[in-house]
Amino acid sequence: MTKPERTFEAAPVKVGSEVQLDLSELLFSCTDSNGVIQFANDAFCRATGLSNEEVVGIPHKAVRHPDMPEALFRMMWQTLEAGKYLGAYVKNQSRDGRFYWVFLTVAPIMDGYISVRIKPTSDLLRNMQGVYAQCLQLEQDGATIEESTAALVAGVRALGFDSYEAFQSVALAAEFSAREAALSKVTRVASTRLTAAADAVFSMRRLASSMSTELKAVRTVPMNMRILASRLENAGGPISAISVNYGAMLDEMSEWVKGFSQGDGNQLAQMSQSILGAQFAFILSALQDEICALQKADAVTAEWVFPSDQTTKFRQGATQALTDAELESAKLARGIMDMKRHVTGLSSTRMLCKIESASLDTGGQALDGIIDQLDASQKTIEDQLGRIADLNALIQSNAVQLNSGRA
Fold first, then answer.
1. Alpha carbon distance 30, 60 (integer Å)
2. Which of 360 and 130 is assigned the larger pLDDT?
3. How far apart are the two ends of the chain, measured CA to CA in Å?
4. How sure is the predictor about 143, in pLDDT bands with cuts at 50, 70 and 90?
5. Domains of the chain
6. Residues 104-119: what's their mean pLDDT?
7. Which of the given ranges, 70-74, 243-247, 329-333, 357-361, has the highest pLDDT on average?
8. Model confidence at 347, in pLDDT bands (50, 70, 90)?
9. Which of 11-15, 41-45, 361-365 has the lowest mean pLDDT?
10. Three-class SS string for 330-397?
11. In the beta sheet, which residues pair with residue 114?
């Protein structure tokens, strides 16, 4: 039976000072479906200044620091109630008024929620502190929670992330890797592969954006060719026909890049979601494995048994996400082959331009200038496409290795 909710008042004596957390500590708690604490480990109790007996029965929001915007917790509850997990930087308050920052991971279980926290050390914490301050100020100025939440998401996007989900996965990976390195732990091969795959996805996004810009710029070339053709009158007929074909191929390539990297549910976004989801689930399972190991070594916690099937569920989630990434990667590989055929078509068209330029008595010099522009643009597009193909192959290889158990 859930105990009546209790809370605690922070004494003002030590307000402003920080509780010193150790990187080796994992702060763990379990709540019921209403967020009332059912169990917490010694590290959590030490940080909050509460005893094991005192902490049970209080709502988790009792340790929330007033510097935190309500928007984050609204987002958290919406995510958890949808059956998903969430990661976030959170500033908490201890019983005596001190504060401490953690990177929080929280996930739903059958009858409540499980949360594991680690001490954050990456630069992302400092960036998010600024985002939180802006959201809190909005709320204090009378903004709605919806407006504050929108500002939170906008702040994450301003840091270079497409979504909060992308941010939380990258942040957890950064904090987990920093912790492993600081504790001189052997870097896990699976963690390295997932980080490499995630980095590849972000690089592909930058390349796709660059390719889209290049295709837009070179789209003026067919127009210049048609203008030149009109000045050459009858002799310009072949050039006009070449410009039409060239323009059509550029349009098809632009549409492919747009479908691959832009708009709702685009292919790159789906691949990113799969890779980052697998990364988050894998690290969360690793942290929970560590909690299980600590619990087995500590007889005091024997009264509450960590649900060991949770780590299995997260690993299964990571496996499914990697399978989805494999499928998206294979689909992208086919699209890249189609794009390479378009590039070959551009080369053939460029050669026809050179042939026509050689046969012209007048206007050949102007056409030579256009051909030079085509050469430069095509080289850039070809290089970008080649790099996307290499990154996609890296993602596919890592996903296969991880799912086959060879990582």
1. 9
2. 130
3. 44
4. very high
5. 12-124 (3.30.450.20), 189-403 (no CATH)
6. 90
7. 70-74
8. confident
9. 11-15
10. HHHHHHHHHHHHHHHHHHHHHHHHHHHHHHCCCCHHHHHHHHHHHHHHHHHHHHHHHHHHHHHHHHHH
11. 30, 107
What the block records as the tokens of 328 is 């998206």
User: 284 vs 35, 114, 172, 334, CA distance in Å?
Assistant: 20, 11, 9, 33
Token output for 185: 């732990």
Q: List, as one string, the DSSP characters of 195-258.
A: HHHHHHHHHHHHHHHHHHHHHHHHTHHHHHHHHHHHHTGGGGHHHHHHHHHHHHHHHHHHHHHH
Evaluated on CA atoms 236, 240, 242, 243, the torsion sign reads positive
Distance CA 336, CA 317 (A): 28
Mean pLDDT of 18-31: 92
Query: What is the predicted pLDDT for the residue at 311?
Result: 73
Whether 88 and 76 have beta carbons less than 8 Å apart is answered as yes
Q: Which residues contact 193 (CB under 8 A, 6 or more apart)?
A: 398, 401, 402, 407
Token pair of 10 as six digits: 């922070």
Local structure of residue 263 (DSSP, 8 states): S
Q: Position 181: which residue type?
A: A
pLDDT reading at 14 higher than 90: no
Cβ 215 vs Cβ 381: under 8 Å? yes
387/204 Cα distance (integer angstroms) = 8
**Paired tokens of 355:** 């042939």
HEC-encoded secondary structure of 83-145: CCCEEEEEEEECCCCCEEEEEEEEEEECCEEEEEEECCCCHHHHHHHHHHHHHHHHHHCCCCH
The confidence score (pLDDT) of residue 308 equals 61
